[in-house]
Specification:
heterodimer, A: mainly alpha, Methane Monooxygenase Hydroxylase, Chain G, domain 1, two-stranded parallel ribbon, two-stranded antiparallel ribbon, flat, B: alpha+beta, Ubiquitin-like (UB roll), Fumarate Reductase Iron-sulfur Protein, Chain B, domain 2, 2 domains, five-stranded mixed beta sheet, two-stranded antiparallel sheet, 7 strands, about 35% helix, elongated
């Protein structure tokens, strides 16, 4: 189901807003999913249990273990929620519905500071080999910090006002959103390339062969 | 609002637990009960202590995770309300609030207020399903169902599997849960092919998991956050007896 959600993102409006997203949920839920999930499961029933000896499994297990050790090893003074709230405030202030280049640059710097502080000063009580909700939460929050940074990069890179997001520098004289189709008719996927590195951009061009791109107007 | 809390702390299933006293301050009456525990946990982490482990997911009364006894009642003092939907306006300044996990042999404690409710999953797996052909969804109107039946099935289907019925029962019986799941499917045409096997398998699984017998005290209905009716228990007993007469008991 997660896979399907990620794969069918654009056939009814890549912005996933309002009625487009509802139509997508209805159409894909009714026509696509019953065939794909059923067809997938029908072949899985005869697949024997998958061995954990595969080198990829070992690699993954090791990386998870080392991240757990790293998280538990920080031994700082501030709770996971402390960092989560800081991140939330930065995203709310600088990467909300209405954003600008200056704010986004500031946000990227601030998020990097939060990340640095997280790895120096997070406190995760409890033990790593027992049920530990704070450890789970810490893992999620560090992912969110990285994701938040990527979102700011994407928002900074997209120098137009498109969909639900308004770049304050790009508006018409009447204050309406101004798209820049020649430059930005693509879907952007940003790859996190590790701490301190700039993320890399993967583009998928949006091609409209039978219809002409227009700006939606409610006037 | 200031509160005195008495909370069950237990490191894991193999170590003994005990009630521990805490004080919280700055609780707003509009906070949910779980948000109050969030405040306490922040305070505990800041003081270098371990936070209280509790289950939660949706925090909107649907997932059935927020299992706990509050002042001796599953999900606390409000009728037909899960813990996450209980708000602090249910309490007064200076109140002492007792918070404990579900107590039932079949729900072993994992940590503090978190219990293992996978026994419910295993009961569901024993029969809480229907067989359908894969492919396109069937048109909604192709199987006519009387309004009254559809309503009864829907009422049974509102069970969120939180386990309050087991926690409230002096016998730790899971009959309200099982009866809701069996009724939901037994009432509908889609549930007919497995109807007889379903009730036997689910009831047997329930016994196997160590849940107690039902003695019709009806505490379960009173504690149920979704108001599942004990009439479902009458139905599941009827289903069980009539199915036992037709289906030869399988060797397990």
């Amino acid at each position: 189901m997660y896979g399907l959600g990620e794969c069918i993102f654009s056939d009814h409006g890549a912005n996933r807003l309002g009625a487009s997203a509802l139509m997508q949920g209805l159409a894909d839920g009714y026509f696509v999913i019953p065939y794909t999930v059923g067809a997938f499961l029908s072949t899985q029933i005869s697949v024997p249990a998958i061995s954990t000896d595969h080198p990829e499994f070992e690699k993954c297990e090791k990386s998870v273990q080392s991240k757990i050790d790293k998280l538990m090893g920080v031994g700082g003074t501030k709770s996971v929620d402390h960092f989560h709230k800081q991140l939330g405030k930065i995203m709310w202030e600088y990467c909300g519905m209405s954003r600008n280049g200056e704010g986004l640059k500031k946000a990227i710097g601030m998020i990097r500071e939060v990340k640095k502080e997280f790895w120096q000063d997070v406190r995760i009580p409890g033990e790593k080999n027992e049920f530990n909700p704070e450890l789970e939460k810490a893992w999620r929050v560090i992912d969110l910090i990285e994701l938040g940074e990527l979102m700011c990069y994407d928002a900074l890179d997209r120098e137009e006002s498109c969909g639900g997001h308004f770049r304050e520098e790009y508006k018409t004289e009447e204050g309406e959103a101004r798209r820049r189709d020649p430059e930005y008719t693509y879907v952007a996927a940003w790859e996190y390339t590790g701490d301190g590195n700039d993320p890399s951009l993967h583009k998928e061009k949006l091609e409209f062969n039978n219809i002409e791109l227009k700006t939606r107007s409610y006037k | 609002m200031k509160l005195n809390l008495k909370i069950w702390r237990q490191k894991n299933s193999s170590s003994p637990g005990k009630m521990v006293d805490y004080k919280v301050d700055g609780i707003d009456k509009d906070m949910s009960f779980l948000e109050m525990i969030d405040v306490l946990n922040q305070q505990l982490i800041d003081g270098g202590e371990e936070p209280v482990a509790f289950d939660h997911d949706c925090r909107e009364g649907i997932c059935g995770m927020c299992s706990m006894y509050i002042n001796g009642q599953p999900h606390g003092p409000w009728e037909k309300t899960t813990t996450c939907q209980l708000h602090m306006r249910a309490f007064n300044e200076g109140d002492t609030v007792y918070i404990e996990p579900w107590r039932a042999k079949s729900f072993p404690i994992i940590k503090d207020l978190v219990v293992d409710r996978t026994a419910f999953d295993r009961i569901q797996q024993a029969g809480g399903y229907i067989s359908v052909n894969t492919g396109n969804a069937v048109d909604a109107n192709s199987i006519p169902i009387e309004k009254e039946l559809a309503d009864q099935a829907m009422d049974a289907a509102t069970c969120i599997g939180c386990g309050a019925c087991v926690a409230a029962c002096k016998n730790s019986s899971a009959m309200l849960f099982v009866s809701a799941k069996v009724s939901h499917l037994a009432l509908l045409p889609q549930g007919q092919p497995e109807r007889k096997d379903r009730v036997l398998n689910m009831m047997n699984k329930m016994d196997e998991e160590g849940f107690g017998a039902c003695s019709n005290t009806e505490a379960c209905e009173a504690a149920c956050p979704k108001g599942i009716s004990v009439f479902n228990i009458a139905r599941v007993n009827r289903e069980f007896i009539s199915s036992s007469a037709f289906v030869k008991k399988k060797d397990s």
